[in-house]
């Protein structure tokens, strides 16, 4: 029998990565739709080209799969934040760009917001077990901190707010707009995700953050 070649190993590795990614994608939808308690690994297996046994092989169990889906969802937005040019861009424009990237991400990833809401219901009991937890915070704080530092040095930004203050302002607007879409519409008859208002809200967010940072 011929020994496995490096090419064979590469193919198996790619297949494993594709399978794992497919499981994570379906698991994210399942947990976001039904919550941690309501989600079923059997259902996730049925909707993927794998088995429950294989899911346990890759992830270990339901809780580990849920945590992996949560980590993956956070990693996506942190990767987007890391793309902002902190060193050479104008700090005001960099802040606006970061706000707009968060706006775009949260609008196009409603499952991320549902997962975060579910984990808050569980008081972050799963997320606090994550080995990736420090790395889930560092990009957001690091990118914002760099922009704020340059803005203060240029005499543009106030010096009595920190990166987490700004992160909270941006996230609050973006999360509220998507997570509370239906109740807001029922009460006020306005759809916050109406495409006709999208550019208005996107600009509004940037203006709010910049006005907050430049207020004297």
From TrEMBL:
The keyword Transmembrane helix does not apply. Residues 17-77 form the HTH tetR-type domain. The keyword NADP does not apply. Keywords: DNA-binding. InterPro entries: Homeodomain-like_sf (IPR009057), HTH-type_TetR-like_transc_reg (IPR050109), HTH_TetR (IPR001647), NicS_C (IPR041474), Tet_transcr_reg_TetR-rel_C_sf (IPR036271). Residues 40-59 bind DNA. PANTHER family: HTH-TYPE TRANSCRIPTIONAL REPRESSOR SCO4008, TRANSCRIPTIONAL REPRESSOR. This is TetR/AcrR family transcriptional regulator. The lineage of its organism: Bacteria, Bacillati, Actinomycetota, Actinomycetes, Pseudonocardiales.
């Amino acid at each position: 029998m011929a020994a496995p070649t490096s090419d064979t190993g590469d193919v198996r590795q790619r297949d494993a990565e594709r399978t794992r990614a497919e499981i994570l994608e379906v698991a994210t939808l399942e947990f976001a739709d039904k919550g941690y308690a309501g989600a079923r690994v059997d259902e996730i297996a049925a909707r993927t080209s794998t088995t429950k046994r294989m899911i346990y092989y890759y992830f270990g169990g339901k809780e580990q799969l849920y945590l992996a889906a949560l980590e993956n969802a956070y990693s996506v937005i942190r990767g987007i934040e890391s793309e902002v040019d902190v060193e050479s861009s104008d700090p005001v424009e960099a802040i606006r760009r970061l706000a707009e990237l968060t706006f775009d991400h949260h609008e196009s990833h409603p499952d991320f917001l549902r997962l975060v809401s579910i984990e808050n219901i569980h008081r972050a009991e799963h997320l606090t077990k994550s080995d990736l937890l420090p790395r889930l915070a560092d990009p957001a704080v690091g990118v914002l901190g760099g922009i704020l530092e340059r803005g203060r040095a240029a005499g543009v930004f106030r010096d009595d707010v920190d990166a987490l203050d700004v992160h909270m302002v941006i996230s609050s607007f973006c999360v509220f707009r998507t997570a509370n879409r239906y109740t807001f519409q029922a009460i006020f008859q306005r759809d916050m995700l109406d495409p006709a208002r999208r550019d208005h809200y996107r600009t509004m967010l940037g203006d709010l953050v910049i006005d907050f940072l430049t207020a004297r």
